[in-house]
Amino acid sequence: MKTFITLTIVLGCFFGLFSTPASAESDGCIAAQERLEAFLQSQPKTCSVDSDCEGFFYRADGCKPAIILPRNHSSPEFLTALEAEQGKVREACAADWSTRGPCSPTPFKAGCVNNLCTGG
């Protein structure tokens, strides 16, 4: 029994070295991300067919999934506001994200369901 407990502790420590710890983000970073997310979620999502929708990696955090929006959603006003919100997130989160490794984009499938762009 003692050997089993020791082995369990050793294996737990060994595998713990290779697990990615949950990174703590500052309140400012979280708040900035929430504002960007609210901005993105406030965009129209209406569509008629699946091909009307597309995924866009607009979130400032490259580890986050794409947001699914209509292909023709962008306007100069949208892009200006988007760049401003993304900049606020990058500034607020720079210290939090400085030691984090790169992420791969999350795969998605955009589609039109009940006349709304959605994805998974």
Account of the 3D structure:
The protein is of the alpha+beta class. The chain has one domain. Helices cover 45% and strands 13% of the residues. It has helices spanning 2-18, 27-41, 76-97; strands spanning 53-56, 67-70, 110-113, 116-119. The strands form 2 sheets. A two-stranded antiparallel ribbon has the order 1-2. A two-stranded antiparallel sheet has the order 3-4. Helix 2 packs antiparallel against helix 3. The longest helix is centred in the last third of the chain and has 22 residues, at 76-97. The protein is globular and about 40 Å long. The termini are far apart.
Supply the key terms:
120 residues; 4 strands; disordered N terminus
What would a concise description of this structure say?
The chain has three helices and four strands.
Order of helices and strands: HHEEHEE
How many strand elements? 4
Average the pLDDT over all residues and give the rounded result. Answer: 82
Quaternary state of the chains:
single chain
Strand order of the largest sheet: 1-2
Q: What's the tally of helices?
A: 3
Question: Strands, helices and their partners?
Answer:
Elements: H1 2-18, H2 27-41, E1 53-56, E2 67-70, H3 76-97, E3 110-113, E4 116-119
Antiparallel strand pairs: 1-2, 3-4
Helix pairs in contact: 2-3
